Amino acid sequence: MMMTTAFDRPQILLTGASGVLGSVIAAELGPVADLTCLTRRRSVTMPGVRTLTGDLSLPGLGLPERALADLASRTDVVLHCAALTAFTSEPGASDQVNRDGTHRILDLVAAAGADLLHMSTAFVDRGAEFATAASSATASSTASPAAASPATDELRVRSPEHYLRSKIAAEEAVAGSGLPHLIVRPSVVIGDSATGAISQFQGWHQMCAGMITGRLPFLPADGSASVDCVPVDLVARAVARLALAGVGREVADGSQWWLTAGPAATTIDATIDACMEIALDRGLAVDRPRTVSREMVERLVLPAFGQSAPPRLLKQMLEGMELMRLFGSQHCFPRRWPTELGDPGPDQATIESSVFASLDFLADTMALGRRSEVA
After folding, report:
1. SUPFAM superfamilies per the record (predicted)?
2. 243, 117 in Cβ contact below 8 A?
């Protein structure tokens, strides 16, 4: 099924509207669409926007049968942004929300005869790296048991692996559904391009806060590796344009959109430089974090200190390695913004200025040091 008429004021269902990205998308679409937001806990308080309380992990999205039928009857587009992203979640929880929840959204899309814009993640492009790393780690531990700490299994080290697998499975379900759809893959979402504001700090922010305060003495990554991040407002604007354009009209059915910095991405070294500049501006005397190759950490640092390191420090080291496998890579993401809809995406200068705006907002909000007075 493919629609052939443009939307004047479409009726859009947005899931995940209370999230970091979803809340900004809701603000973009609220004035120009008949918007209904499906949320699990927090309501969306915007003029003219309806909120429904539901749950992706429940049959029928946790809605009464009549309410579900009414929703289907008045929905032109489903913009599915809701997902469980916490690394702390159990594998089953990620599958229940991200994979199984997407199947329930597909049922609604089919019943509504609607278009689907499915929000995925650019990091599905790195799923193979986690699979390779897991097999390498198994081989390494078999060959050299001393290389790993026997306490490692008890630390419950957080990893994005289960999240990525669930998002890949969700994409596969969407692609194989036969329903009109787009797949959108943003990279690391940072703050507003002008103000740096964001509703909730993400892993990137936590990493940068560690560097600004001197709590992160080294990063298990190559300094030249890319850290692909994009401002939340620019991603929301692009998503809104795609949702309003409609599948099968200005945008091809089944198309994939990589809302990333791509070749314009900043690097680990440049991110460290920015954090050190913020620290200096805030009067924080911290040492510049060192970049240490992952191979060196695995072959030298963990075997030497893994047995004797405090569990908390060991866990931080191992989780840092997981984060840097996700964030820092020599491989650039593909990049595709809706240029045909008037949105070419951010250039390198915009990415760089957005990073500084986000770091300023982070330092202000977390009260990291004190901003230098300019005479």
Report:
1. NAD(P)-binding Rossmann-fold domains
2. yes
CB 324 within 8 A of CB 163: no
- Beta pairing, strands 266-267 & 229-231: unpaired
**Domains observed in the chain:** 11-361 (3.40.50.720)
- Residue from 62, 73, 75, 51 nearest 101 by CA: 62
Report the run of H or E that residue 37 belongs to, with start and end: strand 34-39
pLDDT tens-place string over residues 109-142: 999 999 999 999 999 998 777 665 444 443 443 3
- Residues 173 and 336 sit within 8 Å (Cβ to Cβ): no
Sign of CA dihedral 240, 241, 245, 248: negative
One DSSP character per residue, 8-21 reads SS-EEEEESTTSHH
> Among 183, 245, 246, which residue's Cα sits nearest to residue 2?
246
CB atoms < 10 A from the CB of 74, how many?
12
Q: Which residues fall within 8 angstroms of residue 45, CB to CB, at 6 or more apart?
A: none
Residue of 84, 245, 100 lying closest to 180 (CA atoms): 245
SS3 assignment, position 12: strand
Asked if 289 contacts 217 with a C-beta cutoff of 8 angstroms, the reply is yes
pLDDT at 48: 84
pLDDT at 218: 83
Task: Give 153's contacts (C-beta < 8 A, 6+ positions apart).
Answer: none
- Do 117 and 75 touch, CB atoms closer than 8 A? no
Is 211 within 8 Å of 280 (Cβ atoms)?
Answer: no
CB 190 within 8 A of CB 231: yes
Which residues, including other chains, have CB under 8 Å from residue 270's CB and lie 6 or more apart?
Answer: 227, 352
Q: Tokens representing 170?
A: 């969700």
Q: Whole-angstrom Cα distance, residue 6 to residue 258?
A: 24
Instruction: Extract the residue ranges of the chain whose pLDDT is less than 50.
Output: 1-5, 133-152, 374-375
Full 3-state SS string of 97-146: HHHHHHHHHHHHHHHHCCEEEEECCHHHHHHHHHHHHHHHHHHHHHHCHH
